[in-house]
Design goal:
The complex is a heterotrimer of chains A (250), B (604) and C (246). Chain A has 250 residues and is mainly α. Chain A has one domain. In chain A, 54% of the residues lie in helices and 3% in strands. Chain A has nine helices and four strands. A two-stranded antiparallel ribbon of chain A has the order 1-2. In chain A, strands 3-4 form a two-stranded antiparallel sheet. In chain A, a hairpin with a 2-residue loop joins strand 3 and strand 4. With 604 residues, chain B is an alpha/beta fold. Chain B has a domain of 145 residues: Succinate dehydrogenase/fumarate reductase flavoprotein, catalytic domain (Flavocytochrome C3, Chain A, domain 1), CATH 3.90.700. Chain B has 16 helices and 20 strands. Chain B is globular. Chain C is of the alpha+beta class and 246 residues long. Chain C folds into two domains: 99 residues, Ubiquitin-like (UB roll) (Roll); 141 residues, Fumarate Reductase Iron-sulfur Protein, Chain B, domain 2 (Orthogonal Bundle), CATH 1.10.1060. Chain C contains ten helices and seven strands. In chain C, helix 6 packs across helix 9. The chains are: A mainly alpha (250), B alpha/beta (604), C alpha+beta (246). Chains B and C meet through helix 3, helix 4, helix 10, helix 13 and helix 15 of B and helix 1, helix 2 and helix 3 of C. The structure holds flavin-adenine dinucleotide (FAD), iron/sulfur cluster (2 copies) and FE2/S2 (inorganic) cluster (2 copies). One iron/sulfur cluster (SF4) binds next to helix 4 and helix 6 of chain C.
Chain lengths: 250, 604, 246
Amino acid sequence: MVAVPAEVRPRGFAATERRDAWWVAPLLQGLMLAVFISYATWAALQNANYHWGGYLSPLYSPLITADWIPVPPSLLILLPPVLFRATCYYYRKAYYRSYFLDPPACAVGELRAGRYRGETAFPLVLQNLHRYLFYATFLYLPFLWSDVVHATRFGGSFGIGLGTLVILANTTALTFYSFSCHSARHLVGGGLDCFSRTAASRACHAAWKGASVLNARHMLFAWMSFFTVCSADLYVRLLASGVIHDVRLL
Amino acid sequence: MDHLETKTYDVLVVGAGGAGLRAAIEAVDQGVSVAVVCKSLLGKAHTVMAEGGVAAALATTDSRDGWRVHFRDTMRGGKLLNDWRMAQLLAQEAPARVRELEAWGALFDRTPDGRILQRNFGGHQYPRLAHVGDRTGLEMIRTLQDRTVQAQRIDVFMECTVARLLTDDGRISGALTYRRESGRFLLLRAKAVVLATGGIGRAYKINSNSWEYTGDGHALAYDAGADLIGMEFVQFHPTGMVWPLSVRGILVTEGVRGEGGVLKNSRGERFMFRYIPEMFRGDFADTEEEADRWVADVIAGRKAEARRPPELLTRDVVARAIAQEVREGRGSPHGGAFLDIASRRKAEDIRKKLPSMYQQFFELADVDITREPMEVFPTTHYMMGGVKVDPESQAATVPGLFAAGEVAGGLHGANRLGGNSLSDLLVFGRRAGAGAATYARAQSGEPGVETRQVDAITAELLAPFERKGSESPYAVQDALQDMMGTCVGIARTADDLQNALAALGELRARAGRVGVDGNRQYNPGWHTTLDLRNLLTVSEAVTRAALARRESRGAHTRVEHPDSDKRFGTVNVVVRRQGDAMTVVEEPIVPVPGELRDILEGKD
Amino acid sequence: MEAVLKIFRGDATSGAFRDYTVPLDEGMVVLDAVHWVQAHQASDLACRWNCKAGRCGSCSAEVNGKPRLMCMTRMDHFPPGEPITLAPMKAFPVLKDLVCDVSWNYSVNRRIPAFKPAPPEADGTWRMQQVDIDRVQEFRKCIECFLCQDVCHVLRDHDRKDSFAGPRFLVRLAGLEMHPLDVESRGAHLKEEAGIGFCNITKCCTEVCPESIHITDNAIIPLKERVVDEFYDPLRRLWRRLRGSA
Ligand SMILES: Cc1cc2nc3c(=O)[nH]c(=O)nc-3n(C[C@H](O)[C@H](O)[C@H](O)COP(=O)(O)OP(=O)(O)OC[C@H]3O[C@@H](n4cnc5c(N)ncnc54)[C@H](O)[C@@H]3O)c2cc1C
Ligand code: SF4
Ligand code: SF4
Ligand code: FES
Ligand code: FES
């Protein structure tokens, strides 16, 4: 064990010499995540009010309508994106800190139950399959963009409503979120050691550079897209349940 | 000494900077057993702080360069007082040593065609410094460190200080060291010892050096009976930070000027145009317009046809010029000159090319160098003088003793060019390692170590614990630094130097009264006390050598003898121990042979 | 103006925080204050330093509980009047006062498979473009201050030095793995010896790095992805098997 006189420099949960309010950030982050997750779960279980005119809630896209499935189809549809986020490098950081308290904040003592294995043992070792969830959710992007197109159809004619913008914003945020993924950055060129040798590797370098620019803002896109998904669903839900009326802009 | 921890090696390398590590790698490659000791942790030696680059005539950036030009620049920068053979070896071997680093994993900045990029520096005619932004030393030491660590036959003793060299019948037989951590002694027996301990900057208050630079190697060699040469030549780097007090002396790399930075006084004049010495008049721009053209070419990556700006004159010239401007009342608010790169280069280029400088000023001085000029003043930086060595093998005048890097003398003459130190470390570190290995292999049997000698030394080292605190080691060191700055600084007079000698006597007496508190475990007070002895020795050597050289040349300026004297151009001042007294003698320099003389005269 | 420093004094067996009052100067950094204490109040106060300019990574300590370089931490960074706590790094055994035993780090470094270059061009040298080395140069900025090792909870709280190399050496491994000339493969080393899976990417290392190396985003995560390529990605494994048998 590390030799530090314990009576002077205590170890153990929340032990620290930090003077700042280190607990604020993990607490807020944990609360925000909880709010978003709760809302999304509740909304996905409704299996109603996800549709209004050309607008479709992103939680239900692509739309499956099959009565024979025993669970709400939205749950099935949501499984890949949910796992994508659950294994996302950024969200991992967020929930390891806020929920697992492993660590709660930097240079702050943590709970030590059992021997730490990190991501080396089941189930967390499965985090390593994140890239497959990237592949899977990548396939959603065309549907999400087609939702944007549908959102411009108002009874057969073109138009733009506030909902159109909300859906467009959401699809954009989701696209940025996907393209800024660490796995994506690795797959498009990060895996190479030498960029300049061939034309193909130079192309990869360009792609990697672009991915890197986005990747630096991955956390931002992660929060933005979670927010836009929930707001888009809420907007459609409120329209569909007749609480509010759409604002037609064009 | 029965309980004294003892280990035996063929070669003992003292110092883990560039020179020490390169020597160790070479010695081990030659098949002998090697130990390295250093005062700090591995990788923290001074070399890590080198910024600007390593000078080698690779000719990748300007194809007109070659070893001959490098040789000529080095000799002219050293005011022809250099050991010409060392200067020649440096110029010829540096490119191979730099490429070798690349083979060991170093990554220098690149030219557009994928080769090593070189930058301009003071006194170098062509862009010659291979570099990595402004952290070249870090790249170098990390590369060498990794190479060392991976070699199974090198033992590294970190935080272990050599207190004395041991001799047996006039030959080196090892070193007595103490481990800083525990305060315990460790006896390292060795057939050959390579000194690579760096410089003496801590003898001065305003310096760019770390606590390690207490002239240990110089003093150890001197004590063992080796000759020191050129001790009067202490390099004051023209650009040290001035403000705030806390950072006074910290280096501002010459790379700032190499990248186009200019020096101005409080009237906004680029005063360096007024200080071009006769010897260099033909090589430097005499109008701002020409100097600017040179910078424009360099930035654009073209071969410069214009002559270079006078800011890139050798360090001795620039340092004296800044000091004079300040003395004559044209200094900046905190008593320095303005160094301006903000108005010359784009902010983003500055951050890319000089990232550490940017950060250093931003965080420590609240100055954004992409917007405002810096304030700079000369700072004690480098020791040209050192252990007299054989140019081929780096052997000192004591059998079994070798020296390389800053602690060795001769190569740089009266003034070192920027970038030549890092190549010195590689070229002569390697030669010293080879020299020591060859010597060690030729020895039959282990050299003896006398118990009585060791006991006497350990008693002396522990003595400060017995004298409980009448003097503080820090106060004595402070007083010494103040005195050296005042009396043996950039401009020296005979009176000041005589005063310095008297003051050194008093300081020595005070040092003898220093007592330390606490125990032997990691006790900086005790360590400082032991270092004082070395500082006093080298300070005396510098002062005596400075008295003996009654002329001005390179970094050495005697106020009453403002010009160079032909006669002094042919001799080295040698400092040598005779019993307990320090003696100074003049020794003739080996003249430069004919074909090299032609190079010097530009007939290559 | 004065400041009070609460400095840890002691060794591995016992110790206490002691108060020292230090006069303040403009632009002063924490290391200056420690030196002042050494020179005037406690000559045997142990601390490491060399460059005083943030280049050597010697002066690491915990200032008010945060891992920092003392030479780059300004005294005016702290609210006046409040005492400043100075303690040694917590992830390593204390030797004395502010100095701890970091030798474990050097033993980790020793086990990393060395750089092995591809054969050079005909003229004996290599060609590399700046774009090839930009990425690796970020990693080579590391000054080995070990602040990231100190703050990493795997080492600090869980003390898994038996299985995890720590962020500093993942940065070093990244520098080797992404080196354009290197041909050595370190996948197995990363997974088994360096224990990259122990990192749960919580980014404290990145927060404290004085060289602003993006340790997690640019070194660790890309290395994790490379380890996935080699060990966890079922399709790639299948593909390798097919190609290997073909
Ligand atoms: C800020 C700065 C910037 C510089 N920039 C450049 C540059 O751009 N280009 C250039 O060419 N040069 C530059 N220099 C000069 C150059 O860095 C040094 O001259 C060179 O690094 C010295 O290397 P060395 O191997 O001789 O010694 P160092 O690297 O200083 O190593 C000395 C070693 O000896 C050890 N040691 C000392 N005494 C003892 C003892 N008693 N017992 C045990 N070990 C001991 C120390 O612990 C250390 O490991 C710069 C210097 C400074 C200060
Ligand atoms: S990101 Fe990984 S390596 Fe860095 S501090 Fe967190 S667990 Fe340690
Ligand atoms: S990666 Fe950064 S924090 Fe870690 S040792 Fe290197 S410089 Fe220090
Ligand atoms: S989605 Fe966050 S890292 Fe892949
Ligand atoms: S003393 Fe070198 S980093 Fe602080």
